[in-house]
Design goal:
Distance between the termini: 20 Å
Oligomer: single chain
Structural class: alpha/beta
Number of strands: 7
């Protein structure tokens, strides 16, 4: 067994919240589930469409809510059908969760979330427009580089005089296209890296 009984018990007892279950979040969910975490809450508000099928687990269910489709694949998950907006971040009780995974897209909301739950947070930044998974890195938000979204988050946090650390999964690879485009080899690898960081965090604590 890779993990001893005590460590595996910690993994099984962990309570994790995943915000966004698209190209990154769905792979983080799958990895955590297969690693023994069953108490996972997922939040998303979107439905699957054909454009999701190149990178999102569960996306064969075109037209179905992502949360409902993933509940069928991972029966013990708790689902929240909700858009993650500023009001939700402000009002939601994050205390019950050991780890919060931010795989959402909205910059302002990601910043507010970081301010509120930085101690428990693992944040994914830009994974689109890239195809080299070897460029994926893990660092404090203050040590990220080469990623426009991470840079914007850093700058806004500095303006707000916020100086705490939290973990970020990012890539310094330059954009490979101007318009929208995603490659599952990178978005999926982001999700698996997020899962690995979550497991490490569970075992450390």
């Amino acid at each position: 067994m890779l993990f001893g009984e005590e460590d595996f018990s910690k993994i099984q007892q962990a309570k994790i919240l995943i915000l966004g279950v698209g190209g990154v979040g769905s792979y983080a969910l799958d990895c955590l589930w297969r690693s023994g975490v069953s108490d996972i809450t997922i939040l998303d508000y979107d439905t699957y469409d054909e454009s999701n099928q190149n990178r999102q687990i569960g996306s064969d269910a075109v037209g179905e809510l992502k949360t409902e489709a993933l509940k069928k694949l991972y029966p013990t998950v708790t689902t929240i059908q909700q858009q993650m907006d500023m009001a939700w971040v402000e009002s939601f009780d994050f205390k019950p969760y050991d780890i919060i995974i931010d795989a959402a897209d909205t910059t302002k909301v990601k910043i507010e979330l970081a301010k509120k739950v930085y101690k428990k947070l693992i944040m994914s930044t830009g994974s689109a427009k890239r195809f080299d998974a070897s460029k994926i890195e893990v660092a404090s938000i203050w040590k990220t580089s080469g990623d426009a979204l991470a840079r914007k988050i850093r700058n806004e946090l500095k303006k707000a005089k916020f100086d705490r650390n939290f973990t970020v999964v990012f890539s310094a690879e330059e954009d490979r296209c101007k318009d929208k485009g995603s490659f599952v080899g990178v978005t999926g690898a982001f999700g698996l890296t997020v899962c690995s960081e979550a497991i490490k965090k569970i075992l450390k604590e």
